[in-house]
């Protein structure tokens, strides 16, 4: 089984190193980026199971990164958790409005963050399974529709043949 891949975006070296180490100890495969622009490049290069990003960053902010993810059909369902300062209520509201799955205020208990990550990953897996089930059902519906059309055509041909034979028999 492959390890769950998390893209961690944190502009402060100390915070980045600490978070990466703790997430790694929790069993996640962590890719680190120090900026939103680096994260965009990384998202185009590899697939991730979750993005954990600082909300406020110079250049490409966590909100900008989130909007890019939500606007890309291939990544639109990727879980994104934003990290913000305790007093940044407007940032949290902006994050949720832009489509964040969760916003975590600093300082936080790491165990609570892990529980939130696990919850978001479980939900993403359930949505993925549901989409796969729907795709399977859609394929079965298409197959059945084709089979029904073929049966209808065969029935019409058989009815036409029956009428032709009945007309021949009546003419004798």
Summarize the structure in short.
The chain is of the alpha/beta class and about 170 residues long. It is built from five helices and five strands. The protein has a single domain, classed as Response regulator (Rossmann fold), CATH 3.40.50.2300.
Task: Give an account of the 3D structure.
The chain is 61% helix and 15% strand. It is an alpha/beta fold. It has a single domain (5-128), classed as Rossmann fold (3-Layer(aba) Sandwich), CATH 3.40.50. It has a five-stranded parallel β-sheet with strand order 2-1-3-4-5, sandwiched between helices. Helix 2 (36-45) packs parallel to helix 3. The protein starts with a strand and ends with a helix. The mean pLDDT is 91.
- Helix content percent band: 55-70%
| N/C terminus separation | 76 Å
Sequence of strands across the biggest β-sheet: 2-1-3-4-5
Broad CATH class? Alpha Beta
- Per CATH, the architecture is 3-Layer(aba) Sandwich
Domain tally:
1
What is the string of SSEs from the N terminus onward? EHEHEHEHEH
Overall shape: rod-shaped
**Sheet/helix structural class:** alpha/beta
The rounded Rg comes to 27 Å
Query: Would you tell me the overall average pLDDT?
Result: 91
Give the secondary structure arrangement, pairings included.
Elements: E1 5-9, H1 13-25, E2 29-33, H2 36-45, E3 50-54, H3 62-71, E4 80-85, H4 89-98, E5 102-106, H5 110-171
Parallel strand pairs: 1-2, 1-3, 3-4, 4-5
């Amino acid at each position: 089984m492959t390890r769950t891949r998390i893209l961690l975006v944190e502009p402060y070296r100390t915070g980045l190193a600490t978070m990466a180490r703790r997430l790694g100890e929790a069993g996640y495969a962590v890719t680190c980026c120090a900026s939103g622009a680096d994260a965009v490049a990384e998202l185009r290069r590899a697939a991730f199971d979750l993005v954990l990003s600082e909300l406020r960053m110079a250049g490409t902010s966590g909100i900008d990164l989130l909007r890019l993810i939500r606007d890309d059909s291939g990544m639109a369902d990727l879980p994104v958790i934003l990290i913000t300062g305790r007093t940044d209520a407007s940032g949290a509201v902006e994050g949720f409005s832009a489509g964040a799955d969760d916003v975590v205020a600093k300082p936080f208990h790491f165990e609570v963050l892990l529980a939130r990550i696990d919850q978001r990953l479980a939900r993403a897996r359930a949505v993925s399974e549901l989409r796969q089930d729907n795709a399977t059902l859609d394929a079965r519906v298409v197959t059945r529709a084709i089979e029904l059309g073929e049966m209808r055509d065969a029935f019409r041909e058989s009815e036409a043949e029956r009428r032709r034979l009945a007309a021949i028999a009546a003419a004798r």
